Write the structure tokens for this entry.
Amino acid sequence: MQNSLGIIEPKYFTFAEPPDKLLLESGQKCGPITLAYETYGELNSDKSNVVLIVHALSGNAHAAGFHPEDKDPGWWDSMIGPGRAFDTKKYFVICSNVVGGCKGSTGPSSINPETNKPYGLDFPIITIGDMVNAQKYLIDHLGIERLLCVVGGSMGGMQVLQWVASYPYMVRCAIPIATTLKHSPQQIAFDEVGRQAIMADPDWREGNYYDQGQPEKGLAVARMIGHITYMSDKSMEEKFSRRLKEKNFSFEFKTDFEVEGYLRYRGDTFVKRFDANSYLYITKAMDYFDLSGDKMLQKGKPVETRFLVLAFQSDWLYPAYQSQEIVRQLKMRRVEATYCEIKSTYGHDAFLLEIEEETHLIKHFLDKTFRGYNILREL
């Protein structure tokens, strides 16, 4: 594939070895913790070209390139690589799987060293702040003192905002995409329905299902619910309308409509790559997230981070008014912030699909930030 990064090898970093476990926001401690991560491009001599990409709910560290066993590239491959939005000829790009995840990072499916069994619900509740604090350990391990940019969509956008809240001196620019300062009651409600679908499955077994197999039906339903919210009414009409899979109705409880078959397919494929308990933990972390008011930008502390806030007109899961509220909070503190609302019919999924428009905006914004830094360094 043109401009592809080719085969990428995942990397792993372990920290918080007992007795120096990581203190979580809940007051509990967790350790040891392993983070799976990938890097793309080359770190420059003064380590000033680092872009940290943070993923959404079902994402992972594999953002670009190919793994030998996979036919599909990383989840944001079209944005990362030579000449792309995150140009690996210019930037050193990092993406890690969040703590609580199930793609190489420590989470509820990991082995608890105290029992030699999977944690299950013995894994402590984690927050977006805990995810970012764990990423900070990785960044320190790589010897990086400051990030050129932190960027991500959806839950990734929450992590972007949390990075600025927790480590404002480390972030030169931030790009939160299709995200919010806090979940609305509606957003919490969708997450709770998904969690209840998982926990209502008899195969969930109070989270102790690893010897028998995970609650596939419940997790599939949770994913189906979620996927509906990622699309828009118009995109579903264009993609499916009321088209039937066969010529006539079956007059049975089968997948008569193409949209039904699509959702079942999405659910069935999701259970093969994601852990049900991780779904519970990560959605709970999203619901707990709240940087509204003065929580993101503390009064009396200067914020030099530049912001590019992106939203999509058809996104009803994270509607544009929530991104506008982020910008309003930034402007009130006189933080440099640019807001762009992209016309799209794709709904919330637009941040993964509107590549051309995002590339144009991000390339310009990143280049201006990087050139500005180099000019200041030369003075």
